[in-house]
Amino acid sequence: MADLFEDYRLGPGWDEMFGEPSMPRPTYEALHATLQPLSSAELGVRADVLARAFLDQGITFALKGVERPFPLDIVPRIIAAEEWRTVEVGVAQRIRALEAFLDDVYGAGQVLADGVVPRRLVVTSAHFHREAAGINPHNGVRIHVAGVDLIRDEQGTFRVLEDNVRVPSGVSYVMENRRAMAHVLPEVFAATRIQPVESYPGQLLRALRAAAPVGVREPTVVVLTPGVHNSAYFEHALLAREMGVELVEGRDLVCVGNEVAMRTTAGEQRVDVIYRRIDDEFLDPVHFRADSVIGCAGLLNAARAGRVTIANAVGNGIADDKLLYTYVPDLIRYYLNEEPVLPNVETYRLDDDPAVLAHVLDHLDQLVLKPVDGSGGAGIVIGSQATDEQLAAVRSLIEVDPRGWIAQREVALSMVPTLVGNRLRARHVDLRPFAVNDGENVWVLPGGLTRVALPEGALVVNSSQGGGSKDTWVLTGTPGGIEAEVPEEAPVVVVPTPRSPDPGPAAGPVAVQQQQQQQSARARRPPDRGAWRRGGPVPAAGSEREVTARDPGGAGC
């Protein structure tokens, strides 16, 4: 074996390339055969080409105030077609249940009356906005775009780590990673059938157009960005360009008489759909932060009047609350009469039972502690890696506010060979699949964003914590060459390409709102609610490290 693998050691998690030392799994055989003959110097040259390409194109990421190329590892992550089908179905199922929950919680509130979710959980969440009550999108979609963060546990089972249905980011890196990898590993692409990712902008545009207000036949869609200082501005600009729509800032919009328009050189032009990349709190200074200069006054009133659609909808953050996450399996049973396809990571609720709280406080050094409204890895305490001072500090915070925390079992995330220096080393990864909901179907982008924790033993993969990314290849399940060539510049796709039956990683850029300015269904209910089966108590353990970086506009990345 070439020196790249000669001292490669399997780590504590499920190794996605090797079932046993020096024995690659079937999905990785072609990649392994390509890498094995290469010297570390040859692989290093290709890695340098990747980094230079990202830097030349301005694909950078701000970490602690320093712009750097977004780290893309040269070794891709590969997922078999049958495994992906499970992910696809499970993600879509989760989005359909959360759509039904958001419609319910901002409407009749039956889920609260039935005791499926405690009312106090909703009303005490920082991301539940009463201002959104009664706003009903005409096609029933509140989650137009979702990013569901997944991990593989020690047995290789995909589990949901958290949901991102506010403003999930990172999809631009999925597309750019693929373009770059097609050039540095062409021999692997020639021997592997990989599902393409370039249809994402077309799928997103179709979903946004489908969400237009009633009676609008040719809707005007815009992408609303906080501006060039946002760490995800590259993504905002890329998506606007690929969809062929205008990229606007709050100062470019005006709302009069519940009609929204954008200022152009030819005068004001009506706007029907706003794909916003700004947190709720900064979107409309009339209803939220009065000091916001990156939103537009009146947007919420216009949405309530049915004159404009805001995607994703205001108030979705309640579905991102990490305490609500523990109830999602019950929501799937309640709204869909189905069993969850993708299990959660085992999680303790700390505000339910004093005995559970006492147990967690006695075992802090064995668990992962997460603030329920945190993102970007901020506030996470991994007990086994924490100092006594850190454990004492988090104990005090939990005792004061049990509702503000969850505890999870520390999961050894799956591992993929990663180029570290001039050697391949096992590093932990997660996966953020992106889903697009057009009101009829939930389409899941085949691949998503694999994030990798670069320091040895690290479990936090967030970009804001110094993590990198990998190109994620989903195989077609058929032999032969690559499914589709990846062009230098992906064309704008208005009508999505056909896809297999569908059923909605992170993280791309960190979402640090413009300086201090930005922080923060169509699912039908079964007629017989009695058919819902409660899932019993929450599993008494669960976790994994936080994998969402603060999303450039709201949700985690």
Question: What report would you give on this structure?
Answer:
By secondary structure, this protein is an alpha+beta fold. The protein has 16 helices and 24 strands. Helix 4 packs across helix 14. The longest helix has 25 residues. It comes from Phytohabitans kaempferiae. InterPro entries: ATP-dep_Glu-Cys_Ligase-2, CP_ATPgrasp_2, UCP005522. Pfam families: CP_ATPgrasp_2 (PF14403). This is Circularly permuted type 2 ATP-grasp protein.
Unreliable stretches: 479-557
Number of helices: 16
Q: What is the beta-strand fraction?
A: 15-25%
Which overall shape is indicated by the principal axes computed on the Cα atoms?
globular
Radius of gyration: 23 Å
Level of helix content?
25-40%
> What gap, in angstroms, lies between the N and C termini?
37 Å
Number of strands: 24
Major sheet characteristics: 5 strands, mixed
Secondary-structure-based class equals alpha+beta
Mean pLDDT comes to 84
Strand order of the largest sheet: 5-24-23-20-19
Summarize this structure as a short list of keywords or feature phrases.
557 residues, alpha+beta, five-stranded mixed β-sheet, 24 strands, 27% helix, globular, disordered C terminus
